[in-house]
Amino acid sequence: MEQITVVKVGGNELDSPEFVASLCATLAADERPLVLVHGGGKEITAALEQAGQASRFVEGVRVTPPESMAIMEMVVCGSINKRLVARLVAGGRQALGLSGVDLGLLRCQPYRKGDVDYGRVGDITRVNTPALLVLLGLGWLPVLPPVALGQHDGLPYNVNADHVAQAVAVALSHAPGERPPAELVFVSNVPGVMLGGVVVPQLHAAEIEAAIESGEISGGMIPKVRSALAALAAGVAAVRITNLAGFASGGTRIVT
User: Fold this and answer.
1) What residues contact 151, with CB distance under 8 A and at least 6 apart?
2) Where does residue 98 fall: left (phi above 0), alpha (psi -120 to 50 degrees), or beta otherwise?
3) Pairing of strands 198-199, 194-195
4) What span, in angstroms and rounded, lies between the C-alpha atoms of 30 and 141?
5) In angstroms, rounded to a whole number, what is the distance separating the alpha carbons of residues 36 and 205?
6) What strand order describes the sheet that includes 238-242?
7) Nearest to 145 by CA among 91, 43, 76
8) What does the alpha-carbon distance between residue 245 and residue 243 come to, in Å, rounded to a whole number?
């Protein structure tokens, strides 16, 4: 099998019907083996507000009590996931929407940091790589929301979508067989990492940390570049951050 590309797209971008249409058309026309990981973003927040539940973030992590987890799962595994799958299938790609609960594709443990109770937030501990390889071998495109199965309690957990994409790319890079390590591509509405107002075609680890320290890299770009570095350190062949226009080979390439 040829190199597998793991594509991660954020939930905020999926609020735009035009972006969804362009994304699915781009992926449907791409014949390489692909895995798509997506977030939920604003749609989760809107659904929680409609249910009378406030959204709370600590260091960029959405605190997810059990009652919020049920809504989060409904949004990302239901409406968003099936919207993407429907578009991809209509475009001619055999896409299949599965959460990390299905087949135990993604296993996790509770996320712990400091004294904060994050509720049903998880850290990925294992990826069911053989199952993903079977799906890819059939020519199917797995579409994964950021929901994993607790390895000890069997409950669904909310997981950062960047971390899901990283874990999947790393697992596929170490799968047995004659194939190169996977590629990881973060797709958003920006053409890459911007420094000094321009897209940087390549960034080294030291440059990334300096840019974070100076504030040039901020917000949602921080977990992306750090996930990129962690993925490279764990054996992923290449990581890029780009928009749809640069999906084939553009954007910013992260290197160690």
Assistant:
1) 107, 108, 109, 125, 126
2) beta
3) antiparallel
4) 11
5) 25
6) 95-97, 141-144, 34-38, 5-9, 183-187, 238-242, 252-255, 202-204
7) 76
8) 5
**Per-residue model confidence (pLDDT) at position 218:** 86
| Residue ranges in the chain whose pLDDT is less than 50 | none
* Residue that the structure tokens 């597998």 belong to: 4
Smallest CA-to-CA distance from 105 within 80, 74, 128 is with 128
Sheet containing 122-127: order of strands:
122-127, 106-110, 147-150, 156-158
Crossing angle of the two packed helices 221-233 and 161-173, in degrees rounded to 10: 20
Q: Which amino acid is at 58?
A: V
Total-model pTM: 0.94
Residue with tokens 């940091």: 113
Confidence (pLDDT) at 1: 64
Q: Which of 152, 71, 170 is nearest to 107 (CA)?
A: 152
- The CATH code belonging to domain 5-180 is 3.40.1160.10
Cβ–Cβ < 8 Å for 197, 169:
no
3-state secondary structure of 55: coil
Dihedral sign for Cα atoms in the order 186, 198, 18, 52: positive
pLDDT value for 197: 87
Distance separating alpha carbons of residues 232 and 239, to the nearest angstrom: 7
Give whole-number Cα distances, 242 to 9, 114, 206, in Å: 10, 33, 20
